[in-house]
Design goal:
This protein has 756 residues and is α+β, with helices and mostly antiparallel strands. It is built from 29 helices and 18 strands.
């Protein structure tokens, strides 16, 4: 017994030592920052959280307090936040996981920390609840809270980053849910707040857990090509260093290597291999300006100096110095032709710009006493204002709301000028209509067209960077339902939907009045029985649709309606057919029942943590939606649909991305256990230089060497270049890889792409 106590004590001592060392590291990091030193407040928060979480462990087995310390460490070292944020990070799970309340936190640590902890508690448990509607409500809470104090979302991002770093201890289905949620919401949020380093890590970790083999393959390829990249970097930067030294600048030059996730994303979107990606290496010049007010001029001086050494690409100069991105990012991007014949992007930025690029808005927030934020971040406030406008109008569909927010999170930006020459930042791909709503709702809702660069264009015209736009309006113009198809910004879509819903409510009200008046003339009163009869008679699905049809004059009430209400039925054609041919419908139904697949149904008590195995025998029990065509060998997951059946998706499928972040508790780990008995469809596209006999070689490789079943071949040739599409029957993903490797060896074939 004594021996056991000694073991427990030594374990306790080792754990205490680990916890205290982690906290000391946090304090040491904090003391090196430029913040006002409030060590007592942070220590008090640590001791309180340590006591509150005593005895609780994480799934990894370590004491729970290690998580809040890690989150506080990220807030301090990787975001540059101060004592209020660090203390709130240490306390962020106390209210949710223990008996302490927000009032307790306020009494001990004051209003500001309590407000942040309260915001974090409201949006805890991942952003999302059990259903999509709950998820959107939580997301609204998150954004509303964020508008009060941006530090809530910053600490939430720190929390998610630590959860992603320790995701290995979670079961696979939970990993896909959390990774999917991270890619769908948190990485775009981090990007929008200018947290470039954190955004990249979140994307990479999500990629690593969702596609471990592809992640490792890209990591290995990056390692294999490291030496050639180092050599290219050294040769390219040597003359640049000489030029900068002559200018007497204090500077450093860094190599920036594209992240595995970015490489994989480009491989997927452009259908290229690792070897065909030429912008893996970029060069970053970070200089210390001689005078702070001269930093913009110095960026251009460096650009002039290096473009005398290398030829610059005329279409790839990006001036984010004079026109910063909405997330505060500033830099001058130029693409130069190296002596090895490769285009290399060079990013020129001052030390201040570099700090903002890495740490985001937090790097240039100014804090008063007590770490109060000075609200001088115009772009950030504009973004928060847009979100508040969207939140002010209740959205009927939860997923629409999330998609609307995502439109703004992901958008890259263009610059558009008003007739008076003011610059407006707009998302790329936006239309004249979006621009009208961006300026004012009245302007948008009465917009009839626009003049872009003094030429008349329709509302659907897509704007380019540098366009000057004048909106033309008419008081007789009203919002049209078709507008929703070419509006692309969250603000415009939200306003159009709100106006259409308001108009629909007015039409519905008018329809109700028409019905009341009509029935009154026939001494009848409106009741649910009469409405149901009229809905059936006019074949509309619900009372609202009936009222809208009446309001729009699509249905005109008459004597036949009174006959219908009084039970004097007039048979419609479908009814007549059913009367004389009673077996037609039943026969159809019977056949449909015979063809109905025997799907696996998830019962209560089903273990969702264990993987499901797809075999040759049970494959017919799962649903394979058309969105992504998974085949054996693809990274797959299962999703329990509304009828408790299981859908199989690729983990990279865009539909699955939404499911992971909306219905995370219904995600299952899916594994293939196939034995090459069944065939699946695959399409391979080939492109190359035409020559006599090339088609013959392609078919020989497929049918003779690989014994592949060719379903269909389509080839077209234009001016010596051919395009081909091969529809094949294969067993699994390995077959596809094997076919592509063999086809690559045929002389003349330049590009091979596997289409989903």
């Amino acid at each position: 017994m004594d021996e056991q106590n000694n073991i427990d004590k030594s374990k306790e001592t080792a754990e205490d030592k680990m916890v205290n060392e982690a906290f000391q590291h946090l304090l040491d990091s904090y003391l090196t920052t430029r913040h006002r030193k409030k060590v007592d407040l942070i220590t008090k928060a640590f001791n309180f959280a340590k006591q509150a979480h005593k005895g609780v462990r994480r799934l990894s087995g370590e004491p729970y307090i290690m998580h809040p310390i890690a989150v506080a460490q990220i807030a301090c070292s990787e975001m540059g936040l101060g004592s209020t944020s660090i203390s709130a990070a240490l306390l962020h799970d106390v209210v949710e996981d223990t008996d302490y309340t927000v009032e307790d936190i306020e009494n001990i640590f004051g209003h500001k920390i309590a407000q942040i902890v309260d915001g974090l508690t409201k949006i805890s448990g991942g952003i999302f609840g059990e259903q999509a509607s709950a998820q959107a409500e939580n997301f609204k809470k998150l954004l509303l809270t964020m508008s009060d104090d941006i530090r809530v979302i910053l600490i939430k991002i720190c929390d998610r980053l630590h959860n992603m770093r320790t995701l290995a201890s979670q079961p696979a289905n939970k990993q896909y849910k959390i990774a999917g949620e991270t890619l769908y919401i948190y990485a775009p949020l981090a990007n929008r707040l200018g947290l470039n380093k954190i955004k990249t890590e979140l994307e990479n970790l999500s990629f690593k857990f969702e596609h471990p083999e592809e992640y490792k393959a890209i990591e290995d390829q990056l390692a294999d090509t490291q030496a050639s990249r180092d050599s290219l970097f050294a040769d390219f930067t040597t003359p640049i260093r000489e030029a900068l030294d002559k200018m007497g600048l204090e500077y450093q030059i860094k190599a920036r290597v594209k992240s595995p996730y970015s490489i994989w994303n480009k491989m997927q979107n452009k259908h290229v291999t690792f070897d065909q990606i030429y912008d893996i290496l970029a060069v970053r010049i970070i200089f210390k300006p001689k005078k702070r007010e001269e930093e913009v001029n110095e960026c251009f001086n460096i650009y002039v100096a290096i473009s005398q050494i290398y030829k610059s690409h005329p279409d790839r100069l990006r001036d984010w110095v004079n026109h910063p991105k909405a997330n505060g990012y500033q830099a001058l991007h130029v693409t130069l032709m190296s002596k090895q014949g490769r285009w290399i992007e060079v990013q020129i930025r001052s030390d201040r710009m570099d700090e903002i690029a890495e740490q985001g808005f937090a790097a240039h927030w100014k804090y008063k006493e007590g770490e109060e934020i000075v609200e001088d971040d115009g772009e950030l406030n504009n973004w928060l204002r847009t979100i508040k406008e969207i939140l002010d109008d209740p959205q009927p569909d939860a997923m629409d709301f999330l998609d609307a927010i995502k439109l703004n999170l992901f958008a890259s930006e263009i610059f558009v000028f008003t007739p008076k020459g003011e610059i407006k930042t707009m998302p790329a791909g936006c239309t004249a209509l979006d621009f009208a709503f961006q300026i004012h709702t009245f302007l948008g809702s009465h917009c009839i067209g626009a003049k872009v660069n003094h030429k008349l264009v329709p509302l659907s015209h897509k704007l380019q960077s540098g366009d000057q736009v004048e909106i033309l309006t008419s008081n007789s113009q009203h919002v049209q339902p078709s507008w929703i198809n070419f509006a692309s910004t969250a603000k415009a879509k939200a306003k159009i939907q709100a106006i259409l819903r308001r108009d629909a409510r007015e039409i519905q009200k008018k329809g109700e009045e028409i019905l009341n008046e009509f029935l009154g003339k026939h001494s009848l009163e409106v009741n649910s029985s009469i409405i149901d009869k009229l809905c059936d008679y006019h074949e509309v699905k619900n009372p609202e649709a009936l009222f809208r049809a009446l309001g729009n004059k699509n249905i005109i009430l008459g004597d036949k309606d009174i006959d219908e209400i009084n039970g004097k039925k007039k048979q419609n054609i479908a009814g007549t057919l059913r009367k004389f041919v009673p077996f037609v419908g039943k026969e159809k139904k019977k056949n449909a029942e015979e063809k109905q697949p025997n799907y696996f149904i998830v019962k209560e008590g089903f273990n969702r943590k264990k993987p499901i195995y797809i075999t040759d025998e049970n494959i017919g029990q799962f649903i394979f939606p058309t969105c992504c065509h998974p085949i054996p060998g693809d990274d797959a997951l299962g999703f329990i649909d509304g009828k408790n059946r299981i859908e199989i998706h690729k983990r990279s499928c865009p539909v699955a991305a939404k499911l992971k972040s909306s219905y995370g508790n219904r995600i299952l780990d899916a594994k293939w256990d196939m034995h090459r008995q069944l065939f699946f469809d695959a399409t391979i596209e080939i492109k190359g230089i035409d020559r006599i006999g090339i088609l013959n070689e392609v078919t020989q490789v497929l049918s003779e060497e690989l014994n592949v079943n060719i379903h269909k071949i389509t080839i077209s040739c234009d001016e010596g270049i051919f395009d081909g599409s091969l529809e094949l029957r294969i067993h699994d993903r390995d077959d596809v890889r094997n076919i592509i490797d063999k086809l690559k060896k045929i002389n003349g074939i330049q590009e091979i792409t596997q289409i989903v």
